[in-house]
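Practice record 12: protein with 2-acetamido-2-deoxy-beta-D-glucopyranose.
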Amino acid sequence: MSLKMWIFSVIVATSVATVLASPCSMQNRTSNLLNCITGIKTRFMDNDAFWFGSQYATRCPLKGASYDPKCTNLRPDTADSFGTRFFQSSAIDSLDRYLSVRFESIGRNYTGCGTTYTWDGKERVNIDVDPLSDDVETPWFVRNTPNITWSSNATDYYTLIVYDAGYMICHGLYVNVRGNDLSSGQVVKEYHGPKRSFILQNPYIFLLFKHSQPVNVTAELKNVILNPNWSQKWPIYDFAQNLNLGDPVAVNWVVVTGDEYGAAMSESFGLFFCPDFSTKALHRVPRPFFSNSTQLSVWLDVTMTTTSLNYPVCCNKFTFGAGARKLDPIGNRIYHTADVRSEAIVTYSIKKAGFLPSNFTGEMHSIVTMDPDVPSPTVGTQERPLLHGLFINIRDGNFSTGELVLNYSGPAPPDNKPHYYYFMLYRHVVPLNATAMPWYSSDPSNGRYLFDINRLVSDHNMTLVGATWLRATTDDYVTYRLVAREPGNEASLCAKYPGYSKPCPTSGSTKAFVINNVPMLVVGLCNIMFMAFFALH
Ligand SMILES: *[C@@H]1O[C@H](CO)[C@@H](O)[C@H](O)[C@H]1NC(C)=O
Ligand SMILES: *[C@@H]1O[C@H](CO)[C@@H](O)[C@H](O)[C@H]1NC(C)=O
Ligand SMILES: *[C@@H]1O[C@H](CO)[C@@H](O)[C@H](O)[C@H]1NC(C)=O
Ligand SMILES: *[C@@H]1O[C@H](CO)[C@@H](O)[C@H](O)[C@H]1NC(C)=O
Ligand SMILES: *[C@@H]1O[C@H](CO)[C@@H](O)[C@H](O)[C@H]1NC(C)=O
Ligand SMILES: *[C@@H]1O[C@H](CO)[C@@H](O)[C@H](O)[C@H]1NC(C)=O
Ligand SMILES: *[C@@H]1O[C@H](CO)[C@@H](O)[C@H](O)[C@H]1NC(C)=O
Ligand SMILES: *[C@@H]1O[C@H](CO)[C@@H](O)[C@H](O)[C@H]1NC(C)=O
Ligand SMILES: *[C@@H]1O[C@H](CO)[C@@H](O)[C@H](O)[C@H]1NC(C)=O
Ligand SMILES: *[C@@H]1O[C@H](CO)[C@@H](O)[C@H](O)[C@H]1NC(C)=O
Ligand SMILES: *[C@@H]1O[C@H](CO)[C@@H](O)[C@H](O)[C@H]1NC(C)=O
Ligand SMILES: *[C@@H]1O[C@H](CO)[C@@H](O)[C@H](O)[C@H]1NC(C)=O
């Protein structure tokens, strides 16, 4: 069997396996509903199923006392199951039907944490929520009111509660629904999606109650469930008791973890978790200067501001507009090297994960900029990169207090491969000695080659807290710089350029490429435009 076929069959096998693994998959619950409901009852009472269960004490030894939003827990001393968390109960016998919850969404189309996802208009995602699967969704895909159905009698009334089971927040409340048509009921609170902004798997539960008489939700009762206070531990139970709803006849839940869409929403109300997503992006490419357990706690913004630039290369002229470009680590973009050149004015800003505004009083940071992808082992390696900037001893998060040891120098990768240029933010207690920094390089006279980042970090007990980066490859501005540096190699460096000859053709036939005011979001496309242009010629 060919490798391709083998991979294909493995993929088929795993996807079939996940579909069949759950007794509540659409197929299985149709053929054996009882099996599915039994599974739901067991999971409902499992106090090891979710983050607020028995795993909580290990993950949050301080039990939320440190005001870490990831550890906030209404019932920190109890390893909760859904049953104990909502109903003070260790058994649920009332379930007798399946609550079908289906979300429909489109592919990602949002901006958050400095990146923009653009939907191509094609991807459409249908999620059939299966409480016994391992599926984990993100806020973007469950933001619309789902289609919720259940088997019903037209004469009965139903009440549906949607609740954030971890943080005890109501996400939807419909009462006096006739049959299974949600729109026939009274909307006490319209469904709103999770605003999960950090990476923690949190369940959102859907509870269906059946009653034979309509209920009246008074303002007081509305408060019980919509605005529970911290001493009122069972808002759903209290609400259901008050209205005589009995126990739920059907439940379902969807597990949601954060995405940048959620992070952007929560940032707007002062909770900031973008470092979770730069952490995730950082781990896409492992490097010897961080470990796979590195968790960033600070978001580092780096903005490059350039004036406009004209330069001739290989009988072509290029013009770049002035602009300010904020690096986008999650988008992992390839920048045109002219836009991030050495002459750029580089500005930094930092924000801590957690409650805004951040407070950096009493802390010290340093920023190391480096390229680990250098193709020459005497200049830079993965372990000992080429230094592209060094800015140290920044106190209290105030960048004007820092000492600039080495000015930022822009990318000039010679090997037609995209290199990463990392800006790593370290926190440390003991200040670094600016005059000793060149000794971390293999050549103290320039201080840049084979920079021993790991030794610097261990010598000063530095903690990596933030990271951003840009990528850049060999482009016409690099060629321009290489030709200036090695005029003897002009012919070979210029061979791929249209219209190149030595001397250049008369000015009338010289091509001019003019790119003015390149907007920030399409900067990454410049390369593609140029490459396409070259391909056409
Ligand atoms: C789901 O149903 C299939 C048959 O359709 C069965 O083979 C499988 O064991 C079921 N899975 C579970 C977990 O019940
Ligand atoms: C993506 O979102 C933008 C901004 O909200 C909108 O203008 C655009 O039409 C959306 N794209 C698609 C394909 O829906
Ligand atoms: C919800 O799902 C049901 C059953 O599949 C379907 O009949 C109904 O049209 C759907 N409603 C909406 C609003 O999509
Ligand atoms: C509908 O009512 C009948 C008669 O009371 C009952 O047997 C049946 O279980 C009910 N079905 C549902 C889905 O509630
Ligand atoms: C609901 O309760 C309120 C307050 O007790 C009362 O004023 C109102 O008439 C009741 N509404 C219905 C429809 O019973
Ligand atoms: C909080 O809820 C408890 C229990 O329902 C109640 O006794 C108390 O008065 C409430 N406190 C506030 C401030 O609303
Ligand atoms: C992370 O690093 C540890 C220790 O080096 C290693 O055992 C583990 O397999 C690594 N995990 C991944 C996902 O690479
Ligand atoms: C910032 O932190 C310092 C030291 O922890 C503290 O003294 C100061 O009051 C804090 N500032 C604000 C605005 O919270
Ligand atoms: C930042 O540091 C500079 C230089 O020490 C100082 O002049 C300035 O007042 C500081 N800014 C703030 C906001 O503390
Ligand atoms: C950095 O560049 C600026 C502007 O060219 C220059 O004035 C300064 O001396 C440089 N600093 C170092 C440490 O090279
Ligand atoms: C800083 O390093 C230089 C050169 O290694 C050394 O001469 C100097 O004493 C050091 N300064 C401090 C404060 O350690
Ligand atoms: C190094 O830093 C860590 C955290 O910043 C701290 O817990 C530890 O005590 C420090 N170790 C030394 C030797 O300074």
